[in-house]
Amino acid sequence: MAFEMGPETRQVQGTWDVTTYRYKIEGKGMKLLCDAMKEKKIRGIRCNECRTVYVPGPTFCRKCHIDIDEVVEVKDTGEVGTFAVLMADMRGNPVDTERVSAQIKLDGADTWLGGTIEGIDWHDVKIGMRVKAVWADNPEGKLSDIDHFEPA
Ligand SMILES: [Zn+2]
After folding, report:
1. Is the pTM of this model over 0.90?
2. Are 59 and 71 a contacting pair, CB within 8 Å?
3. Separation of 93 CA from ligand 1 center, angstroms?
4. Span from the CA of 104 to the centroid of ligand 1 (angstroms)
5. Ligand 1 centre from 60 Cα, in Å?
6. Cα(5)–Cα(11) distance, rounded to whole angstroms?
7. Ligand 1 centroid to 55 CA: how many Å?
8. What are the tens digits of pLDDT across the range 122-140?
9. Which of 36, 81, 120, 142 is 20 to 30 Å from the Cα of 27, by its Cα?
């Protein structure tokens, strides 16, 4: 199988079982983010020293190694930092509809947030492409309150 790709895009065949990964999620920044999402807002924490904005916010700056707690709101628009096209499920079975899983740098944030991109053929997804969040109708204060992203 061969696909037409942009010059900066490389296709890698393989399976990646994400269930074997463990993430340390800092509770305070995640609670801040989830509480904001109930109101369809996105909040992170900024470092006073280097001005880096983290979403979700950690309680310390990963660059300056100091405690941080300045709450800032970022936009629900941003650009695609990187993405993967999921063509098979966890067991390697082909899926009916390819899914674009992306890391998105929201406007005002310096970190990337994961999400899926819909409303566009995966062949047309590009790094740097502008996207906007599509919110769930009734946000519950969960990361899934951003249902997906679509081209802006
Ligand atoms: Zn800093």
Report:
1. no
2. no
3. 44
4. 21
5. 8
6. 8
7. 14
8. 999 999 999 999 999 999 9
9. 81
Please tell me the distance from the alpha carbon of residue 134 to that of residue 137, in angstroms, as a whole number. Answer: 9
Residues 43-91 have pLDDT tens digits of 999 999 999 999 998 889 999 999 999 999 999 999 999 999 999 988 9
Cis (ω within 30 of 0) for the bond into 58?
Answer: no
Domains with residue ranges and CATH for the chain:
24-151 (2.40.50.140)
- Give the pair of three-digit tokens for residue 26: 């800092």
Burial of 97 (0-12, 13-18, 19+ CB in 10 A): exposed
46-69 residues labelled b (16+ CB within 10 A) or e (exposed): bbeeeebbbbbbbebbeeeeeebe
Q: How far is the CA of 90 from the centre of ligand 1 (A)?
A: 37
